[in-house]
Design goal:
The protein has twelve helices and 19 strands. It is globular, with a radius of gyration of 22 Å. Among the domains are: 178 residues, FAD/NAD(P)-binding domain; 95 residues, no CATH class. The strands form five sheets. The chain has a seven-stranded mixed beta sheet with strand order 7-6-15-16-17-14-18, sandwiched between helices. Strands 9-2-1-13-19 form a five-stranded parallel beta sheet, with helices on one face. The chain has a three-stranded antiparallel beta sheet with strand order 10-11-12, with no helix packed on it. It is an alpha/beta fold. α2 packs across α12 and α5 packs across α7. This is Amine oxidase domain-containing protein.
Length: 437
Amino acid sequence: MKVGIIGGGVAGLSAAYELSKRNIRVTLYEKSHVLGGLASFFPLDNGFIERYYHFICLGDNVLFSLLDELKIKNNLKWINTKMGLFYNGKLYPFGSGFDLLRFPHMTLGEKLKFGFALLEIKSRKADNWKNIENIPSSEWLIRKFGKNIYNILHEPLIRLKFGNYAPILSAAWMWARIHRIGKSRNKITQKEILGYIEGGTKTLIDSLEAEIIKHGGEIIKGKEVNSVELFPDSKVKGIKVDSQIIEFDAVISTVPSPVFLSLLPKLDGTYWTNLKKIDSIGVMCVLMKLKKSLTENFWLNISDRRISLAGVIEYTNLNPCYFLNGRRIIYLPQYISSDDERFSFDDNKIISQYLGYLNIIRNDLKEEDIDAAYVFRDKYAQPICEVGFSKIMPSIKTPIKGLYMTDSSQLHPDDRTISNSIELGRKAAKLIFDDNM
């Protein structure tokens, strides 16, 4: 049996690995010269760094099992991280119950409500999210935490991450995000524990690539798939690359659903209609290498109307990146539609604007404190999981025989993490194996 895989992100590599282990002939196509997708990396100084930030939580069990299987689990490191909140011009610690008690902009009653809400969200069973899927996140958060807490913490996050989509965001998505982070501490008074892979995502990606090749799989980088070819009887034929059709018994697309749709002829039916309904928002992320630390926090939430950032992530407060010789790495993400004019701004203009945001947080930070800065963009970073999303969420198996697809929207209500992407690839591989063996 021959299987073609479109896309060399984590889900695509996971599917290729699982299939190749079963002696199924796999060919994976990645248009970039670097594997990893949103988990890809680039050389910096004497090492490599991810284009977008990643962190690992205590509940990422699928990732742990894969690291163990690849014999790289010793590269997994855990750190007690700090979280902060920049609220209306002032920086506050906000990573523990004691920090919450000291925060001056909530009443004692609000703080107690906040603590009980977090405990309830953390303990809610995974399948109970369906009870809140049809509720807008804002309505659910206000009911759960109260209006003041919502305005301070949640409204800025949702507005800055989802823009015009904010009013239709499902409460289930917000619950899953809080639930995952909550599992990284055992008690509300305990500090947060987060993990990273020594060597970054490159360690994982390189190991997967080596294992796929060892098991007879083929990985072709720098080749963009032109189309998915079908037989007249609604069965997959293969993939067209460089005007040549390569036939496969099954094809898995792991690229974002709008890209997947662009590879296909016009198709009718509920599955394809629903797939077209799924909207995505892009991301523009600035990575800065600084000569000094910005704050002591790994994650700094922003609640200040002057700063249009979803957060400030000082990655070296999680992963020390010793190859940087004391330099600091920060990620500055901004979620905007690829149609927004800001998405196409000149890199220098964006870097200058973001430095202005950092000056609000720390006014002694100067341009000469920046060793290097890079701007990364992705058109399809985050699917919009709106109210009632599961009604249109696509299955991995499409109506076309032999054609499968994975997309981060299928993780609903969970977020797109490395662990979840690995599981998505495993599910696609298992479906192919079960359907054909």
